[in-house]
Amino acid sequence: MGRAEDDDDERGGSDRLMAELTGTDGEGWGTDLTTVLEAMDAATARPETDVLLERLIGTWDVEGSWVIRVDRPPVKVGGRTENRWILFGRFVQSDTFPTADATEPSSTVIFGYDPRAEDYFAFAVNALNRHYDIEHGAHDVEADALLLRGDEVVLPGRRVLRFVRTVAFVDPDRIDVSISFPDEPDQEKLGGIEITWRRRTSP
Question: At residue 4, what are phi and psi to the nearest 5 degrees?
Fold first, then answer.
């Protein structure tokens, strides 16, 4: 086989890989990274999973409670949550601020859908600690809620707690978010978080 034929095979393999990765052959994209990313976004059909994540987008007033220990009064949760598309509309970044006018978020969650694993996921970090949580799950159509499961290692003792983040779409202007421990035998002692997002209609 000659070099020209080798080049054709390499280009063909590259084109096939490009098509598999992006859904397009990249013809006419140019060499500027921003132009390439914008062209990829324009050439790729928006999946149905984005329709669900789109319902998170917006600024929301937050109200709820956090039960740290069942033998103590709950901590009142307030502030606001700002959800926006990032990385050319591939993921949703959810920043929660402790007060209505705070400029620094106290927690951030990245929501997305992984077509390889065929599940929704969340990557969560917050200002209370230095670890992160990775959650995976699905959309419960009947309940119209995202159910995302994760593991949290609790010190001391390194006990692993299995938790569930529920993101329930009550209506276009209200989302209920909770974190609970339904799989733990002593779940009634572990507390949890229950908050409501209400869409902000003014700045």
Answer: -60, -40
pLDDT tens digits for range 25-46: 556 556 667 776 676 666 565 6
Q: Residue 1: is its pLDDT beyond 60? A: no
- Which residue has tokens 């901590």? 75
C-beta of residue 78 within 8 angstroms of C-beta of residue 63: yes
| CB < 8 Å & 24+ apart, contacts of 119-124 | 120/49, 120/52, 120/146, 120/148, 121/148, 122/148, 122/150, 122/165, 124/150, 124/165
Query: CB of 158 within 8 A of CB of 169?
Result: no
Cβ count within 10 A of residue 92? 22
| Whole-prediction pTM | 0.77
